[in-house]
Structure formats: C-alpha cells, structure tokens
Amino acid sequence: MAQQIQAALTILRRKQVEARTGHSRSTIYLRISQGLFPKPISLGARAVGFPAGEVEALNSARIAGKTDADIRTLVTKLEAARAASFQT
C-alpha cells in the first residue's frame, strides 16, 4: 500500500520514462499525440515530468497485451483521475 502511494506521488523525468518504457523521446511524444501516453505535467518553465504510477499502469497494460483502443481508454481514465485528484 505504501509503495503504491509512493509510486503515485513520484514524478519521473523524461530520461527515466525512456528507461522504464524502452521508448525514445520522439516515440513518447508521438504516443502522447496519438492518445496512447498521458500528457506530462509541468514542473517549471522548461521542465516536465510524468507520474510514475501512470507510467507503470501503461507498462502493465502493454505487457498484458491490451490493444491501442484499450490503451487510449486507460490514458483517458488516468488523466481524468489526475485532474480529479487535484481539484479543490
């Protein structure tokens, strides 16, 4: 349980995401434009990061053999959950 909370709160930089997914920078941003990868969050004027829990969820879905349509649905749910968790 504590590991899940820690993973949800950890932000990965692009190089870390590349290492965890095996995708290059251009592939990550291509997948974002296709709706197959969640959009990054802004960390500053010129820095972005990706929530570790979302990256792990996508990796798990790919390993499970989910289709691109399933992945798009997952990305939509992940981004909606992110938005809902930070509403005040």
Key words describing this protein structure:
12% strand; 88 residues; Multidrug-efflux Transporter Regulator, Chain: A, Domain 2; three-stranded antiparallel beta sheet; globular; alpha+beta
The largest sheet is: 3 strands, antiparallel
- State the order of secondary-structure elements, H for helix, E for strand: HEHHEEHH
> What radius of gyration results from the CA coordinates?
13 Å
Q: Which structural class matches the secondary elements? A: alpha+beta
* Shape, per Cα inertia axes: globular
Distance between the termini: 25 Å
Please indicate the percent range of residues in DSSP E strands (runs of 2 or more). 5-15%
Number of discrete helical segments:
5
Number of strands: 3
Helix content: 55-70%
**Which CATH class?**
Mainly Alpha
The low-confidence runs, each spanning 5 or more residues with pLDDT under 50, are none
Examine the coordinates and then state which fold CATH places here, giving the name of the CATH topology: Multidrug-efflux Transporter Regulator, Chain: A, Domain 2
Number of domains: 1
Average pLDDT for all residues? 91
